[in-house]
Please model this.
Amino acid sequence: MRIHISHSTFYKYDTHVPYTAQLIRLHPRNHAGQQVLSWRVTSESGRLLPSTFDGYGNVLHMLTRDHLHDTAAIIAAGEVETTNMSGIVMGAVETLPPKYFLRQTAYTRPDAALTALAQEAGGVFDAIERLHGLMLRIRWRVVYETGATESGTTAAEALSQGRGVCQDHTHIFLSAARVLGYPARYVTGYLSDRERPQQDGAGHAWAEAMVEGLGWIGFDVANGICPDENYVRVAIGLDFMEAAPIRGVRRGEGDEEMRVSVDIRQGHQLQQ
Model:
């Protein structure tokens, strides 16, 4: 499947600020089942440094503006060709050993309820069946509801209130999978099927867990499935903060408003 994506992020500041710097993870990479046909990250102003890679192997851009400004925009756009790999990630650049992804973070640190949730799924012998069962338990326990949580909501908080979005579902899965001894990581990307739950006007998030003998396998809790050809992987990390599409700092007073617009269209498959 050919997928056309345009991801625009707009910033409006209350007052003119003299300096902003942003780390951008909005560039997908090639691996089995995902071929980047074309892709560009651009900005109407500022200095966009040549791309590099972070410690996870994600493509990383840095954008700085050292002049007075009260607006900013970042646009990532291109085309990706995908095929269904049944959630199995093959051929991706791996810079860290799987055991690194056993680490809990402030977002995923388990409490008693999260540990109990993991243990509910832990009684199943087969690893794939166990992780699928965990995914479905989370989906039943935490109803998908936009606006119910914030970007700083932890896995324990989202599980307690029983509502959340794909970020919360993913953090809960990561926490419980790690309790069970499975390395697990956060994935940001895109979902081209608008009939499936995803962040309104933004990208999507899901988890990947390492299963011995198979490798990394994706689990989209919000939709209760393993990723298929409708998904485009962009970045990975221990949690949302380490795989966030854009993170930044600025000098100056006042507040900022951010608006994100993502347009995703399906095209025709490439002719072999």
Remarks:
- The chain has two domains: 2-82+245-267, 98-243.
- The helical segments are 112-122, 127-141, 155-161, 166-179, 240-243.
- The longest strand covers residues 2-17.
